[in-house]
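Hi F.,

I've been meaning to write this up properly since the lab meeting, where we talked about keeping a consistent format for the predictions we share between groups. The idea is simple: the sequence comes first, exactly as it goes in, then the structure tokens exactly as they come out, then a line or two of notes. No screenshots and no reformatting. I'm using this chain as the first example so we have something concrete to point to.
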Amino acid sequence: MALTRDFKETVAARVQSDPAFAQALLDEAITLFVNGEPESAKLILRDLVNATVGFEALADEIHKPAKSLHRMLSKSGNPTMSNVSAIFAAIKRALKVEVRAQVVMA
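Output, unedited:
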């Protein structure tokens, strides 16, 4: 049987080695939130937190317990908009990226 690496480890390694991939994940999380798919967005954010700042450092940065952050970013979590905003801001700082909204007319 072939040795495999855990999916979350693979995502974390790719985020750390490929800035474009990290930016694409952040963009996807934002798009999912805006388009009414918060459950999927929270799971992507959870992977980004694990791959960038980590839950303990994020907890210190936004003054929330790490355990609460884990719950917020679970599929059934229910973070407030201020918490979501703080998490996005921390990830943006960790990735050293800016985010701009663009309206695309369908």
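Notes:
The two ends are 48 Å apart (CA to CA).
The chain has one domain: 8-95.

If this format works for you, I'll send the rest the same way.

G.
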